[in-house]
Amino acid sequence: MSTGKINVSVENIFPLIKKFLYSDHEIFLRELISNATDATLKLKHLSNIGEAKGDFGEPKIEVKIDAENKTLSIIDQGIGMTQEEVEKYFNQVAFSGA
């Protein structure tokens, strides 16, 4: 497993989200939590049919707010993404200025 940080320019991302995806931040947050739920349920299903090995414990999703560092984290025990998927779907978010 590889770890790293994804940096997104807030000045660029929120106007895009607001204009093209979601009219308010509550919907955006709900979508992130929904994605975490989907990933968790997918891992549970794969485990039930024998395609994922290991003890995954009780599924849980955490929403953490760090006011000091101005961060919001959605943490789940879901299926996860490959490094290739992360690079494809997340690393280039809102940097083009489009």
Name the features.
single chain, 98 residues, alpha+beta, two-stranded antiparallel ribbon, 3 helices, 12% strand, elongated
Question: What is the strand and helix layout of this fold?
Answer:
Layout: H1 10-21, H2 25-48, E1 61-66, E2 71-76, H3 83-89
Q: What do these coordinates show?
A:
The protein is of the alpha+beta class and 98 residues long. The chain has helices at 10-21, 25-48, 83-89; strands at residues 61-66, 71-76. The protein contains 3 helices and 2 strands. It has a two-stranded antiparallel sheet with strand order 1-2. The protein is elongated, with a radius of gyration of 15 Å. The longest helix is centred in the middle third of the chain and has 24 residues, at 25-48. The protein has one domain. The chain starts with 9 loop residues before the first helix and ends in a 9-residue tail after the last helix. A hairpin with a 4-residue loop joins strand 1 and strand 2.
Radius of gyration: 15 Å
How would you spell out the order of helices and strands?
HHEEH
Based on secondary structure, the structural category is alpha+beta
Shape: elongated
What is the CA-CA span between the terminal residues?
Answer: 32 Å
Number-wise, the strands total: 2
Strand order of the largest sheet: 1-2
Largest sheet: 2 strands, antiparallel
Query: Quaternary state, please?
Result: single chain
The portion of residues assigned to helices is: 40-55%
List the total number of helices.
Answer: 3
* Arithmetic mean of pLDDT: 76
The portion of residues forming beta strands comes to: 5-15%
Could you list the spans in which at least 5 consecutive residues all have pLDDT below 50? none
